[in-house]
Amino acid sequence: MSISKQNREASDDARINELLADDIQKELSFKIRRLPGNLVLRFQIVNVVLLALEITLIISNNVQTLGFWASFVTTSTRYREAVKRTRLIYAIYPTSLDRYHLWRGWIVPSALAGGGYIAMSLLCLRHELYHWKPDLLQHYFETVHASRLGRLVPQSWLAYCFRIYERKHKAYMAKHIQRRAALRDSAQFLKIVRVVSFNLLISILALLLWWLLLLRTKIEADDPLTLPLSYVPPLQGVVWYLCNDFFYFYPHWIAHSIPDEDAFYCNLLPKPIARRLHSLLRQAHKTHHRAKANLGVAAWYCSPWEQLLFNLFPAFIGPLLTQVIADMAGVEDIWGTKLVTLYVWITAAAVSSVLAHTGYRSVWNDPGKHDLHHERAFDPKAACNFGTMGFFDWLHGTKSSIPAADSSAWKAQRDRQAALWEASRRSGIALTEEQMTVVKQPDHSTEWVVKDT
Ligand SMILES: [Zn+2]
Ligand SMILES: [Zn+2]
């Protein structure tokens, strides 16, 4: 058979799959199958988990007690008693501390938020294992195979490992938002781990201070078992989120905006104070922008001042504020901050910080918004996305439309890819290389801002 005839047949086969995929995408059953993944992609994993927790709360309050929270409190109390019985703690622990409920108000939330941060960072770090180009890895494999020790390992094993790596590398490239590498070398990684560990320590101490302040209100610390009414956590969540976005957005925006007549804060404050404020906030925030490409574990890579001012204070202020208002209004029984809501909030805040910095778009998590912020950080004309979930960015017109457009393009590619696989299954015709790699990250490298911090 002539080569041109073979090419024609291959292109006819490819066309059959394309036409079949067009029809499949119109099928209701296909749309239903795609729905769960697309919903997670739309609402993101943290919001999906929060929704699931709210559903269990509604069931527990109205249908049947599920007992998850009671069993968590019982287990936690058992651990507390076990720790108190250890020789060291028994020797140094004054019982007068009992009234501060340090275990449930400080130790447990610190463990949940810190553990959440560390676990999510480790999960997201696994992507970085696959950032080497396969050609480079093949070179290493060949070197290993040629070595004396390597000759003892069967070639087929090395080839098998290489194929797995190649596949993972392709997936990594299809999901990594920027073409830049997030890490320069291992020394830089160790520096990140050092700084983040210190900030975790600061966070634990700040959490103690926060709990002691909460104890000065009428927060219910003696009875952790009572669940909140079903409508309270979502409403509190909205208020706490708005507080968080407000206190994160404005200092962050000031840190990135040069104090000229266009900057909003220059019209509100005397010029010397505005300049000083900008300089202090920018200085505190500069460390965080160590690189334009993001890395999950580096979410809290920042100066201690930034950790306190940008990350902890905005997350802590909401629950404290609503508790104080509830006390003043005499409705603390209903609207007071419950421990269970506090735990969920603080853990979600820590995990969300990591998820915003993964630099890696997946069905579970799309950090495109904050990724673009890092990419354009200190360019006064292009800097954008200073908030967390976007309310104040929307209000002040600092929200970029690029991440949302990228997300919907990526979702459309994923749907097309799934339809093509289904078409290939039905037609029995293999997909072409091009048809197998429909999902690609939108490439903005041509618009990259070269300006350094
Ligand atoms: Zn950041
Ligand atoms: Zn920034």
**Which stretches of 5+ consecutive residues score pLDDT under 50?**
none
| Tally of distinct domains | 2
Biggest sheet descriptor? none
Residue fraction in strands:
under 5%
Distance between the termini: 60 Å
What's the total helix number? Answer: 19
Task: Give me the secondary-structure category.
Answer: mainly alpha
Q: Give the rounded overall mean pLDDT.
A: 89
Structural Rg: 26 Å
Number of strands: 0
Description:
With 453 residues, this protein is mainly alpha-helical. The protein folds into two domains: 313 residues, no CATH class; 35 residues. The protein is built from 19 helices and no strands. Helix 6 runs parallel beside helix 15, helix 10 crosses helix 12 and helix 10 packs antiparallel against helix 13. The chain is globular. The N and C termini lie far apart (60 Å). The model has no long low-confidence stretch (mean pLDDT 89). The structure holds zinc ion (2 copies).
Please write out the topology.
Elements: H1 3-26, H2 28-43, H3 45-62, H4 68-85, H5 87-92, H6 102-125, H7 134-146, H8 155-175, H9 186-215, H10 232-256, H11 264-268, H12 271-286, H13 304-329, H14 332-335, H15 339-355, H16 368-375, H17 391-396, H18 402-427, H19 433-436
Helix pairs in contact: 1-18, 6-9, 6-15, 7-8, 9-13, 10-12, 10-13
The site of one zinc ion has 6 residues, from helix 10.
